[in-house]
Structure formats: C-alpha cells, structure tokens
Amino acid sequence: MNPIERTSDEQRVPVLSARGLVKTYGHVVGLDGVSLDLYPGEVLAIIGDNGAGKTTLIKCLTGAEIPDDGELRLDGEPVHFRRPQDARDAGIETVYQSLAVSPALDVAANMYLGRELRRPGILGSMLRLIDTKTMRENAKAELRELGISTLQDVTVPIENLSGGQRQAVAVARAAAFGSKVVVLDEPTAALGVRESNQVLELILRLRDRGIPVILISHNMPHVFDVADRIHIQRLGKRAATITPQTHSMTDAVAIMTGAKAA
C-alpha cells in the first residue's frame, strides 16, 4: 500500500490543486467548473472519452492554456501560468505524447535540451561553450537513479533508440527538472508490452522518489496498475474521483460513459 493511503485527504496539503476551472472556445465548453487535487507521492490518473476535457485540463494545469475562470494553487499558494515556461519554472514538467525530442542529438543533449549547461569561466560566459562532459555525467546519474538499465551510453543519438527508450529519456528529463510535478500524456500509447511495462515501472519510481505524477491514459489496465486515485472526466466536468480499491475497471468505464453514477 502506498503510504499516502494511510493519511486522510483533509490532513494533507495538495502539491497542485485546481478549483472551478472553466475554459470555453466560443460556444464549445472545454471545462465546466473542474476541480482537482494532486497530493505528495501519488500517481493521479486522468481518464475520459475523447472530448471529455482531459487535454484542456492538462493544458490549463501546465500553462499551455489560460483558464477563463477558476484558481490554481501550487503548495497552497495561488499561481497564474501564462505560458508553459511559467509552469516549468515552478517545477511542473510535462511529457507529451509527441515526446518533443531531437532525433539527431544524443541522450544527454536531449535531457538538457533548452537548459544546456555552459562551461565554467570565460569559456561559458563569453564564448558560450556547452559543458558536454558535465551534462553527460549528470544524465548518466539521473538514468541510473531511475533504474533505466537499457540506456548505458548517453552519447547515442535519439534516432538510434527504440520507442520505449525514447520515452525513458523524456521521462528522465522530466524527473530531472520536475521538482514539483511530472505530467505524462499517454506515455505508453505507441509502445509494446515490454516497453510499456518499463515505462510503468518508471512512473512508480518517480512516485517512490516523492514526485507526484499526473498520468493521462486510455489504457485501463495500466491506469489500475499504477494509479493511487483516478480522476474521471465526462463532458467537460469531473464525473468522479475513484480509487482502484473502491472501483473496478468496469465501474470506471461506466462512469466515464455515463452508464453509471459515481
């Protein structure tokens, strides 16, 4: 049992919380008063049919969209993200389904993409030279800490890696810089069984390190394997928040489709 289950929600302060989020696109309602809490050291899955508002919710939580109404709090303090960089600066890292990796660059360079380390002294400050050695050492240490044994050589170009290995690099990058929250959007969608299991193990390792994870997935067995709680979206609203202990996969699908009330 995850340690978080032994403490009631009332006694815990959410790392990230949303209250009454509203987002409309003309006459189309993306979010209709959605609330959400993400607690320390937990995996919160978000599920729902296409058009249920999952993507819009994640975009509002990570700065890709600005909600029309509602409030976001990080560690209990109000935050206002105007762009994704604001969320990243606050410690919220997102791994999208497209991964956003550069195939020609190696593993270490991709982990530090957009955050490249400069060499000490005048070489870095004036000549802007990249500290490749330190980035590779740090990348190797992060991969080792996450238990990613399939990536021994951080100098290998991303284009030479399998889909699962590329996903591992993206997750490791998020773990390295996501000091508060890591958001994973369909991380196993294009992977086989073995590689999917490796990604699920990575998610649990993140949780064990105390980093809360938001997982968006259509794969119910995966959700029920790793999630501590499951937030169900339906027609732009939160239909229910359940746990794998209190509800079955059949229950979750029934709530998601409207065949059953929470």
Describe the model.
This protein is α/β, with parallel strands linked by helices. The protein has a domain at 25-102 and 162-257: Rossmann fold (3-Layer(aba) Sandwich), CATH 3.40.50.300. The chain has helices at 54-61, 84-89, 107-111, 122-125, 132-145, 163-177, 193-208, 220-226, 249-257, and strands spanning 16-25, 28-38, 43-47, 69-74, 77-79, 92-95, 181-185, 213-216, 229-234, 237-242. A 6-stranded mixed β-sheet has the order 6-7-8-3-9-10. The chain has a 4-stranded antiparallel β-sheet with strand order 2-1-4-5, covered by helices on one side. Helix 6 (163-177) runs parallel beside helix 7. The longest helix is centred in the last third of the chain and has 16 residues, at 193-208. The two termini are 24 Å apart. This is ATP-binding cassette domain-containing protein. It comes from Sinomonas terricola. Residues 16-260 form the ABC transporter domain.
